[in-house]
Prior knowledge:
By secondary structure, the protein is α+β, with helices and mostly antiparallel strands. It has helices at residues 66-77, 107-111, 149-158, 180-188, 192-201, 209-221, 224-227, 236-247, 252-258, 261-285, 308-320, 380-395, and strands spanning 7-9, 16-22, 25-26, 54-62, 84-86, 95-103, 118-126, 137-147, 163-165, 295-298, 341-344, 346-348, 351-358, 366-375, 401-403.
Amino acid sequence: MVEKGSVILKHKPEDFIVEEVWDNYICIVSDNVDLLKDSKVNLGKFDIDDRRAFLTFELEKLNLDHFNVLSVLSKKLHNYSHEIGYAGTKDKNAWTCQKISIYNAKIDLIKNFSHPGILLKNFKWAKHKIKIGDLSGNNFKIVLRDADKDAIKVLNKAKNTRLMPNFFGNQRFGSLRNDNVSIAKLIFQQKYEEAVFKFLIGYGEDENMEVKNAKIRLKKDKNIQAAKNYFPPVLKKENMIINYLINNDDNWVGALNVIDQKSLLIVCQSLQSKLFNEILQRIIDEKIKLDDNVSLPMLGYDSAFSLGRIGEIEKEVLRNNGLNLKDFKNIKLPNLGLRSSKRKAFFIVKWIDMEIMEDELFDKGKKIILTFQLDSGSYATTLLDQFFICRELHLNKTSHLRDKTKEA
């Protein structure tokens, strides 16, 4: 039963389209989503012989986890993970298009690449690797389904809002298993054994039963030696860790180093993001006035606390999470040390259009199509959350923005 004032987000991946923006260039998704079902590489007029150190191309994906896709590329193209560059992670339950770079690309393997839900296109040679943050922003086209008059009224009012709290979105915390923060916290608290076990036993609701059962069994019996015999081959990193521990007498720090450093650093950075969200939320809750362009700290080992009440909030949030600034130094895992940085407290929505149509999938509801652009590092889910916080205040009840991927 649909509750009053509710809408459904991400009923299907095609309802959440993300296209990277690079200055005046946009990575546009295909005209037909069926092209991703059994995609083949078409090099077109690409000059294979005019070779550079890096090959760049657009990666279009449908309903696939970002890091799982990188693993597919690494395996099929015979490249190490650190040789693959990208400017930003993209949602799993979505239809997305972004730029990727590959160092020392093997063209024969590129030509023969094929994988359900992945399309590689628009190839170019480049002198430099694509790095996190290189993009200008992202274009979004989002379909909200089964909307009633209340939801439409709120969106009509909220669509003219140009300034939004710059919270990190949920994908920052692990789109598949959502356990990045808990693992990171254990690492910074130097609880390395617990961190390794948390990694080994964590699973997402969308994973298959063989994976879930293996991880549930290990959580129950905690027998690493036995796990070697029943962990499925698809869990490559977990099996590498298990083999390492069997051969290295419970060296938990070494086991963490088995995970590639880029992935582990992203896990640790998710804790910084959580702390930022909590600090910003406390500032909003306490109605502390901030300038539109003000930045707040991403806490690290070299941070200096802000002055006044905001500094007190930073200390309280850190303390409530069982951490000190010095924890971010992480002497035993120096590559994971986190320095301080700044992030804008608010972001600007550059443009937004809204179209209301009959919903072909829900007889009694309307379909709302939102199109807008956000700068790099800002999240569409944050924007939508803020719209429906406005609705919550309007109705004086709980928000009913429902993510279809989380409904059973």
